[in-house]
Amino acid sequence: MTPVWIAVLAAGAASYGLRVLPLLLGDRVRLSPRAQTGLRHAGMGAITGLLVLGTVTVLRPSSGLPIVPVLVALGAAVTSALLRRSMLVTVLAGITAYGGALLVIALGAGGP
User: Which residues contact 97 (CB under 8 A, 6 or more apart)?
Assistant: First the structure.
């Protein structure tokens, strides 16, 4: 079995486990309101992070991932999600932060 299929099966098993876990636990586990709020916005933060990483990979496939701008963009997106902003605002925050970090790096390296 190739590593790709192992990753696909592991992701499928993890996804299944996360979906069935609330059904199995039912009313046995109570989360605090703060935990519920954080989990409510976790999906948005994950989707935004994947969008940023996907955009970087598509636009700069040969240079690899510039880690600092990606981390800045993810931080901005997570902050926006925690502040309960809409998906559009969260995505725009990630894109703007990524562009700003790239600009700062380019200006620090002697210009674009």
Answer: 69, 72, 73, 75, 76, 77
CA-to-CA separations, 46 to 40, 106, 107, in angstroms, rounded? 11, 27, 30
Angle subtended at Cα 101 by Cα 87 and Cα 98, rounded to the nearest 5 degrees: 25
Tokens, residue 46? 């994950």
Domain boundaries, the chain: 1-30, 31-108
Rounded CA gap, 58 and 56, in Å?
A: 6
| pLDDT value, residue 73 | 84
- Tell me the C-alpha distance between 32 and 96, whole Å: 33
Q: Does the pTM exceed 0.85?
A: no
- Cα–Cα dist 76/96, whole Å: 9
d(CA 6, CA 26): 30
